[in-house]
Amino acid sequence: MVTDEPLIARRKADHLEIAASGRAEFARSTLLEEVHLVHQALPELALDDVVLATELVGKQLAAPLVITGMTGGTGEAAQVNRDLARAAQAAGVALGLGSQRAMAEHPDLAASYEVRDVAPDVVLFGNVGAVQALAMGPARVVELAKRIGADAMCVHLNPAQELIQERGDRDFRGVLAGIARLVDASPVPIIVKETGCGLSAEAARSLVNAGVRTVDVAGAGGTSWVAVEAVRAAEGSGSAALGGELWDWGVPTAVSVALCVRAGLGVIASGGVRTGYDVARALALGARCGGMAAPMLRAQRAGGAEGVAMAIAQVLAALRAVCVLTGCRAAKDLARAPRHLGAPLRAFIDDLGALR
Question: Residue 113 belongs to what domain range?
Fold first, then answer.
């Protein structure tokens, strides 16, 4: 029987290459640079006093960092995931896997998602698209989570990317009800995540009503998956043209964090989060953790698991330094640290009601 496995593998490989290359970055920013933390010249705090530990989806992390889901379904993806898993295990941070659609459609690809043998204790997130989760039904999604030993399951929302992708999904009806059914049925927490376009106040409220407690905002300002599909599309095609037009579509990461925190959600702040300082700014807006994908992928490509470990260490060193410089004994205290929001960010979240 002829399957579309080669097409899936080729698409996954394209996604990895384009994301790592930086050819699909947003032209506009996350607006995290508009979060100005106030320097404390008398912190009365030693660097070693700072506590980075936090809790996410009922699990303890050594630091508020998630390596967010990127890939699976190819030989290269298997090596990427295993290198990321080794580094995440050593650092005590969380790891997300890429979409398990390839695994669901072709069970022989499951090995590219299996990392428990090298990272038995890592806090691990599975991943499935919302449209695919609706079609599969809760029982099958739960089975995908069990197959990889996931501590939580991410359900990703990516309508903008799908509209650009050749043969992508075009019907997004029933997704919210499907998420609600999955939340009710799943023995592990369900994290709803965007894929580079952010979550609005309306989406946040709808997810709360569906029983979701944790989201990954994956806001605008980092890798644009609309742009990824535009780069993949045939030159001169309608997909390439539409992707070019909507390249910068989305809610900036900082805005989306504020909106989702206001709605009462636990927030992973990803989407253009590139440094420990960015993580600190996101925590100051109320996020529970920062999330990174592209920086960790590039570190893995440059130096394998050791390269990822070095990248994580740099992020956490910067986060710890910002805690000292703001007088915060714990990373979670950044949410109450004195701050100033720049006019572009304040105006955006005021207009959308996050501060009302």
Answer: 23-348
pLDDT tens string, the chain, 356 residues long: the values are 334 444 656 666 777 777 777 787 888 999 999 999 999 999 999 999 999 999 999 999 999 999 998 888 788 889 999 999 999 999 999 999 999 998 998 898 899 999 999 999 999 999 999 999 999 999 999 999 999 999 999 999 999 999 998 888 899 999 999 999 999 999 999 999 999 999 999 999 999 999 999 999 999 999 888 888 888 887 778 888 998 999 999 999 999 999 999 999 999 999 999 999 999 999 999 999 999 999 999 999 999 999 999 999 999 999 999 999 999 999 999 999 999 999 999 999 998 865 54
Q: Which residue carries 């029933």 as its tokens?
A: 174
| Residue 2, in any domain of the structure | no
- Is residue 33, in this structure, part of any structural domain at all? yes
- What are φ and ψ of residue 35, in 5° steps? -95, 110
Whether 212 is covered by a domain: the verdict is yes
Contact 260, 271 (CB under 8 A): no
The rounded distance, in Å, linking the Cα atoms of 294 and 218 is 12
pTM of the predicted structure, to 2 decimals: 0.94
Rounded to whole angstroms, how far apart are CA atoms 292 and 273?
6
Count of domains forming the chain: 1
With respect to residue 142, please indicate whether it lies within any of the assigned structural domains. Answer: yes
- Give the CATH number for residue 57: 3.20.20.70
